[in-house]
Design a protein that fits this description.
The chain is mainly β. 12% of the residues lie in helices and 43% in strands. The strands form 3 sheets. Strands 1-10-5-2-3 form a 5-stranded mixed beta sheet. Strands 4-12-11-6-9 form a 5-stranded mixed beta sheet, with no helix packed on it. The protein is globular and about 40 Å long.
Length: 161
């Protein structure tokens, strides 16, 4: 009985968090859910994509993705911050090579003009799940916190028709 009650409360927390989340994109209607303790519960179905963010030292960081391509439609990203500091994930729709985006020397960031959505700054050890409706095309996922893109936090992502 206690397990059923705990499971019901956990689901209620996830649904409440999802209902309170706000959309950060124009046409994407992302869905985010989060429960206490950094545990996330997806509310919307989408093709699952795992993204791992981290840092190996002060100047070398990474984004890893699996799978690197999916079919167009709803895509549910599970973003795991394995690093020692905050990281984020910006989804940029672009035909530019993932490692050739221009870094603004004044901000040490790349332009977010082609952003179709994001998972905002996420603390170390936390997991965030967010669903986007993505059109076919080429994308680059980046952490755009100052210097992070230049230190390796970028990965190519393809959405097929």
């Amino acid at each position: 009985m206690r397990r059923l009650l705990a499971a019901t409360m956990f689901l209620a927390i996830g649904i409440t968090a999802a209902a309170c989340s706000s959309s950060g994109g124009s046409s994407n209607s992302p869905t985010t859910t989060a429960a206490s303790g950094g545990i996330t519960v997806p509310v919307a179905d989408g093709v699952p994509v795992a993204v791992h963010a981290g840092d190996t030292n002060d100047t070398t960081q990474y984004l890893k993705i699996d799978p690197a391509s999916v079919k167009a439609g709803k895509v549910t990203f599970t973003f795991t911050n394995e690093g020692t500091r905050q990281h984020e994930m910006i989804v940029l729709k672009t035909d530019e090579a993932f490692d050739k985006l221009v870094i603004d020397p004044a901000t040490n960031k790349v332009s977010e003009d082609k952003s179709v959505g994001e998972i905002s700054e996420t603390d170390k050890g936390k997991v965030v799940v967010k669903t986007f409706d993505l059109a076919a095309g080429n994308y680059v996922l980046v952490c755009n916190i100052e210097k992070h893109y230049g230190q390796g936090m970028r990965v190519a992502f393809t959405v097929n028709p």
